[in-house]
Amino acid sequence: MSEDFMLDTDDLSKRMDGALANLRTEFASLRTGRASGSMLEPIMVDAYGSMTPINQVGTVNVPEPRMVTINVWDKGLVNKVEKAIRESGLGINPQLNGTIIMLPIPELNEERRRELTKVAGGYAEHARVAVRNVRRDGMEQIKRAKGDGMSEDDQKIWESEVQDLTNAHIKRIDEMLEHKQEEIMQV
């Protein structure tokens, strides 16, 4: 019966890769002193009775290295978009010009840079937890197979494979975090 057991390591790897992809998205939303349209992705606007991503209520552009603009399509939503940006915690003061909201990106001071590195560390820890949860699922599959007659040698081989996969993904998360923290602290 144990010869029939095949752990789907591709599935585990894909799920761990999903945690890495999510981390990349969260890191892209962190402000590093340069303007980026992706920094607005997590912001949701109360539009037409539901929470809507900001890029679905207007066009986000980066015309200059220190400026992001949002051309809001519906005049009635301009104030709601402005309010969502103010309450987002990005530390940006929106300026209105008709249906265009301009977001000048100020230089980051040392204190704000340190705060952002802590936020980045929190994002990385969430990704590590997600990877460890996938690892736990894989280990539980192995334990169930052992209960169904898998040999201890096979169990050790599969557990080692899952652990190696986990270690590789955790190492990649740590590398991404280190790179992002260097980018944030760069003056």
UniProtKB/TrEMBL annotation:
Membrane-spanning intervals of the chain: none
Subcellular location: Cytoplasm
GO cellular component, one term: cytosol
InterPro entries attached to this UniProt entry: Ribosome_recyc_fac (IPR002661), Ribosome_recyc_fac_dom (IPR023584), RRF_sf (IPR036191)
Main location class: cytoplasm
Annotated signal sequence range: none
CDD domains to which the protein is assigned, alphabetical: RRF (cd00520)
One Gene Ontology molecular-function label: ribosomal large subunit binding
Keywords: Cytoplasm, Protein biosynthesis
Any GO BP: cytoplasmic translational termination
Ribosome recycling factor domain ranges (all copies): 23-185
Family annotation (Pfam families): RRF (PF01765)
Family statement drawn from the similarity comment of this UniProt entry: Belongs to the RRF family.
HAMAP family listed in its UniProt record: RRF
Record's function text: Responsible for the release of ribosomes from messenger RNA at the termination of protein biosynthesis. May increase the efficiency of translation by recycling ribosomes from one round of translation to another.
Protein's UniProt name: Ribosome-recycling factor
Gene name of the encoded protein: frr
